[in-house]
Amino acid sequence: MKVPGSARESEKGFLFALGAYGLWGTMPFYMKAVAFVPAWEVVAHRALWSVPIAGVILLLLRRTGDLKAAFRQPRTLALAALTASLISVNWWIYTWAVSVDRTVETALGYYINPLVNICLGALFLRERFTKPQMIAIGLAVTAVVILTVNAGGLPWISLTLAFSFGIYGFLRKTLPIGPTQGFFLEVLLLSVPALLVLWFFGEGHFSSDGVGTTLLLMLAGPVTAFPLILYAFGAKLLKYSTLGLMQYIAPTLIFFIAVFAFREPFSYWQFIAFCFIWSALAIYSWSSFRMLRARPVVPVAK
Fold it and tell me: How many independent structural domains does the chain possess?
């Protein structure tokens, strides 16, 4: 029995997305391996070594035409520079947090991210909150308050990761080029300051710490580029509802790695806060799924 084209595409999309979220979820292992290198230096290598990988993929896909147009549009370049800055901040906080044994807080940040997206939609797109969304956001705010009171300060790592990635994704949608082209443009723009930073302020880990360290830092390119590219292909082939549910794979893997592999402390109050977040995400996902199912099916003209 032949599998219909749409079903086959969904299967491929699922595998692409699963690969992306799986790589993102296991990235703490790589970050822990390079924890002896300053976070800003790791970020510089992530940008530099992503350029050739993204460039080769663009050439293979024959999608370089959009880039030529983008370089002639100052607004597009400025927007790409802004999104590149946001993602570099996200990378730096994440890399640093893992290196100082605060991986649990990064998992919380990526759990909060979908709820941040709701707030951004209401703020900038004038989208109205549904009742389930308001409950979900209320639960998330409660979790943040619990962590703030318990720790004596805002969970700034989690919030910075959630908001930097949320704003990045929001602005990224307005970039008038494809996802692969946009990623190449971002890392290309980041490569210039990355080279300058490594040249003037680098501590020489790449060239003087042996072949193992050199290869480990070069691996920053594939570690960065491959999940983003897999995600771009998966997003094109999957339903939004499926992709929305799969986005929790990465923070869940990060959470389990932090608690069971890295043996990071996980207090009673952190557990309570996570329960509020997990409840918020369950309500948000259920609400989103119901809204998608309730949409009328628009007949396609033949």
Answer: 1
